[in-house]
Amino acid sequence: MAKRRSNGEGSIVKNMRNGIQIGWRASITIGTDDKGKLVRKQFTGKTQQDVKNKLQEYKKQMLMGVLNEDKLTVSDWFYSWLFDYRKQDLKPKSFQRYHGIYKNYIENTDFGNIKLNDLRTTHLQRHYKKLLDNGITPTTIRQINTNLKTCLNEAERQGYIQKNWCKLVTLPKKEDNKEVKVFTKEEQEKFLEAIKGHELELLYIVALGTGLRIGEILGLKWSDIDFKNNELHVNRSLQKAAIYEDDKIVRYEVQETTPKTKNSLRTIPVPQNIIKKLRTHKNEQNELILLLQEEYNNKNYVFCNKLGRPIEDKRPGRNLKTILTSIGIEPIKFHALRHTYATRLFEAGIPPKTVQHLMGHSDIETTMNIYTHVMKEQKLEAVDKINSIFA
What we know:
Pfam families: Phage_int_SAM_3, Phage_integrase. Keywords: DNA integration, DNA recombination, DNA-binding. The chain has about 400 residues and is of the alpha+beta class. The protein folds into two domains: about 10-170, Tyrosine recombinase, N-terminal domain (DNA polymerase, domain 1), CATH 1.10.150.130; about 185-385, Intergrase catalytic core (hpI Integrase, Chain A). The chain is built from 14 helices and eight strands. The strands form three sheets. It has a three-stranded antiparallel β-sheet. The radius of gyration is 26 Å and the shape is globular.
């Protein structure tokens, strides 16, 4: 076996008591007990640097190979890898997703109890078949394998396993892409008429006119709006994410994060009539700030409640469903407004590569896979034009 370093890099978090920060806390996995459960050592201090120094000093003194490879299970390793290696560099939502995979599909399962150095592709294959038989979708199983593959890369690098067995698994086929639900042009006009005067009217208009994700819309600040050039810059996303103490969720907080991918950092041209509405909205917000003064929590957000606080991210979707039901349109999810924006672009003949950049997709395949329903119509139109040649 290759020489390996001590188990974890350790994690450093705020030390909270009754919702108030009293300092900082560091923790590191140092081994397993007689029952095979992970043993974690903790350090506390007044400052982040204090606990960082304590952690670094302890790591220097740790003997190599503290973890007993004969006892270390897949579940133990995934937990250690997630909290000691990845917690500090994953976005809150991403960490929450990894933690969900661990809690739902690895912890306290026959698969999770397999000793790490005994793991083989057959174990993974059996586990995925069992999940599939219990109604877990192929998409979820593929996500589990993706997360496990990343986790086992580190185990392979340190010499705990001979190879990353996830790379040899035969995964279930992806489900057929469900047809993307979007507004027809008539439905979009009917919806825009129905939301006139609604508190979230401008938020819906911006969604339909820019294709921003809900987190990107809620994260918009006035500094991101370029009134001179009629464009906006996507620089951040606002997300409600879980806050953990060890492996337990203690509360949820709204946090600013960087957008979903590097391509999500983008500049989008905004229709002039929407720019005018944004300017009016800014003037109205400024009047409210002057009126409320200290009571207004001014974080410079474009969309917020009347006290300046972020809008709850589920609210636009709930309101959308209510509005659509009231006007006789089949309800669609808020994210479908983003798809509607892209559909209108395709219908206008905008090249797919341009649509990709406007949407912030990481690759053109994502764009094309989602909007095949529009491309199908364009193909039929092209065939009709060719047919006319032979009439």
